Fold this sequence. Notes:
The chain is α/β, with parallel strands linked by helices. It has three domains: about 5-110, Homeodomain-like (Arc Repressor Mutant, subunit A, Orthogonal Bundle), CATH 1.10.10.60; about 115-185, Methylated DNA-protein cysteine methyltransferase domain (Double Stranded RNA Binding Domain); about 200-290, Arc Repressor Mutant, subunit A. It contains 15 helices and six strands. The strands form two sheets. Strands 3-2-1-4 form a four-stranded mixed β-sheet, with helices on both faces. A two-stranded parallel ribbon has the order 5-6. Helix 2 crosses helix 3, helix 4 (about 55-75) runs antiparallel to helix 5 (about 80-85) and helix 12 crosses helix 13.
Amino acid sequence: MNDNAMPVPRHAALVEQACRAMEAGETPDLAALADQAGLSRFHFHRVFKSMTGITPKAYASALRAARARRELDQGASITQALYDAGFNSSGRFYENTTAMLGMTPTERRRGGVGLDIRFAVAQCALGALLVAATAKGICEIALGDDAPMLVRELQDRYPQATLEGADAEFKHWVAAVVGYVENPAQGLDLPLDVRGTAFQQRVWQALRAIPPGTTITYTELAQRIGAPSAVRAVARACATNPVALVIPCHRVVRQSGALAGYRWGVARKLELITREGKIVRTASGLSSTENQNKITQPA
């Protein structure tokens, strides 16, 4: 049997075996992983990406980043953390630390100390709305019923960071977010400072390409990023999206049309889809009934 004829269950087992090897701390190169799986390097690379949504190299990098975060959170020195995580040199570690750790190694080790985050809480049609940003851009937009709880959750994520009130520029950003909820037709284009794995970034980028007033399924989203077999991983990436509205994970529904879950509540997801749907209805002349029939509401 040639590589291409190998059944999917066998592929899944081989990919899982490779993942376990990397998770155990081994750092084999692509040739060694392919040889272990009994596949050519080209085909192993293609199979791995198809099953997981990312390349073997990206998977290994994400594991090293997770180990580095864990070591730093436990108080290890930066040097110890980078070598225990599997980085061969400090140069390679420092090249992409912000993307991997969400902050510099020193900031991470100190729980975000020295990191300044502006934030503000406002009220909108969806309830309480928290917007937070670093000097680079929006790092969090959260929705909820309890404004103080949203602030406490932000403090828990950045226990040692300096949380500051909104300045004049930041108030404009908050107003833009609130304005979008009230009138999605005005659009929302703000600078972002969101950090995640290579796979999460691909999913979040694809989410931003979904036009307002439309929805796609998790399966379609997986296909759009070139990972048709990674539907569950795509759903997890949507669930860990830290920035509501700007990264519109609410526009993804189940294959049946059901809304599925939403980090900030299914009722809010339905309200957002309904509000954005008015843009399409106005442009196309669809009635409210016709539009609502396309979405299966939760029981």
